[in-house]
Amino acid sequence: PIPFHSSEREEKMLSWKFSRKGATGFSWASTADEVTAGVTASGLTAIVTGASSGIGAETARVLAARGAHVVMAVRNLAAGDTVRQAVLAETPAASVDLMELDVSSLASVRNFAADFAARGLPLNILVYVHYYSQSCAAHLILEGTIDHPTP
Asked: What's this model's pTM, rounded to 2 decimal places?
């Protein structure tokens, strides 16, 4: 087999293609901070599921930095608190709450909804970051519900 080889011209073309900005002025390499620069979310309440790591944590961080009251809905409260402390260290004036939510458990979802409603907060933004696993599907079936994951 011939090993992969790219010419300098091909590398320049690929570099141009992937660094090119679209009609919005952003590219695939744009950061959440760049995309939301100048945006204010003051007065808005956001629930972010899966906020203890990955894209959920980054979403919570940026929403908090833009002034939203962020409710981090997490399965693991200890991991969630680590992220919460990091968000508060970066944005000391941020308003960030931590609530337990396991989306694979209907009982947990119901408890979360009741606890959130009891706080009397509006819900302006919902970011649903969902990690799907077979054990999650089996658990939902045991609770008598049907989960239809999307690709």
From this structure: 0.75
